[in-house]
Design brief:
Blueprint: H1 2-26, E1 45-56, E2 61-67, E3 86-89, H2 93-98, E4 111-118, E5 125-127, E6 133-135, E7 155-157
Parallel strand pairs: 3-5
Antiparallel strand pairs: 1-2, 1-4, 2-3, 4-5, 4-6, 6-7
């Protein structure tokens, strides 16, 4: 009789465990995500720059670029004379790929334009938000003060336009 009782107790435990697991599997998934409070979503800074690195992280696709000056003929440099690299956080790598944004479509040296919500602490980084992303044709930069969306033959990636600053 004791073995039947033990089997019954074990079956109840297994059923309880399976019930708890099924609740976890059937619950609505919640997308955990970090805060965007580090970015100033109330403003856009618009950049035209040269890609130096692409990081297709699963959570956020990143573009590392050095801005071009207003004359569009030189890289912006920091106080030590080194190129000032900005990092832009974008959508997930999967979403970026759906828009044609890949490491291959933006090789090192590509000239591109987009708006970003800059970091509140002043670091050279930001979030793309809903800004358009435009690529200049190879070997062509925009006229002084303009962006790639003004260059004939530009390529637009995903929805959006260059925002007003």
């Amino acid at each position: 009789m004791t073995s039947k009782r033990n089997i019954l107790i074990m079956c109840r435990r297994v059923i309880k465990c399976l019930s708890i697991m099924s609740i976890g599997f059937l619950s609505i998934p919640v997308n955990a995500h970090h805060s965007y409070s580090m970015y100033d979503g109330s403003i856009y800074k618009v950049f035209t720059g040269v890609i130096v690195r692409i990081v297709p992280n699963a959570a956020h696709f990143e573009m590392h670029f050095v801005p071009l000056n207003e004359d569009r003929n030189a890289l912006v440099r920091d106080d030590e004379g080194e190129p000032l690299v900005w990092v832009v956080q974008m959508e997930s790598a999967a979403r970026a790929t759906q828009h044609g944004i890949t490491r291959e479509s933006f090789p090192q040296g590509t000239v591109m334009s987009m708006g970003i919500h800059p970091r509140r602490d002043g670091r050279p980084a930001g979030d793309r938000g809903d800004s358009g992303l435009f690529q200049c044709p190879k070997g062509i930069s925009p006229e002084p003060g303009k962006h790639c969306d003004s260059v004939p033959g530009n390529i637009s990636f995903g929805p959006g336009e260059i925002p007003a600053e």
